[in-house]
Amino acid sequence: MAPMKLYGSTLSWNVTRCVSVLEEAGGEYEIVPLDFSKGEHKSPDHLSRNPFGQVPALQDGDLCLWESRAICKYVCRKNKPELLKEGDLKESAMVDVWLEVESNQYTPALNPILFQCLIRPMMFGAPPDQKVVEENLEKLKKVLEVYEARLTKCKYLAGDYISVADLSHVAGTVCLGATPHASVFDAYPHVKAWWTDLMARPSSQKVASLMKPPA
User: Fold this and answer.
1) Would you indicate the residue range of the signal peptide (predicted)?
2) Domains in the chain, CATH or no CATH each
3) 29-51 burial string, b = 16+ CB within 10 Å, else e?
């Protein structure tokens, strides 16, 4: 069977969110880079894979998917369903809860920090807006307080088992490590231990290696 094709740039944390799960699940795949400067993400070919002209997109035979978390769930169902815990109603519900928390609480606080500290200087040659950074650091700290309380009770977010909910945090948090605010986890010992554990996994190491910007 042909490998799955993941379209997009590995500098995108939405793309590498999928890589984290593909690596953990052991799915055979290849990354197909798109040249944004040439508008390849808006080409008819890519629009047939993702009608919004965004990344990532995943092609598996005649199936095309977009939206990174939907791709992650598909990969888990295909290659490693235990990452979703769908055989247990309560455990799968907790995986869903913490994947939603990542999407609706953690990442919305994190993304403005990453944009200001990484994207704005690199793409626009402009310094970070420190007011935006500080506002979102405060939001992130409030989220981390909830994570700290949760992780005093279990090793991973959904329970004492790794799941797609944990893996979905990897790409964005790797990027946080490249900002001046990488030490924000230090005030939350259980969060820091959780993150250290995640980063020791080969799947996370792969993501970190892919997200290094070109010299």
Assistant:
1) none
2) 4-83 (3.40.30.10), 89-208 (1.20.1050.10)
3) bebeebeeeeebbeeeebeebbe
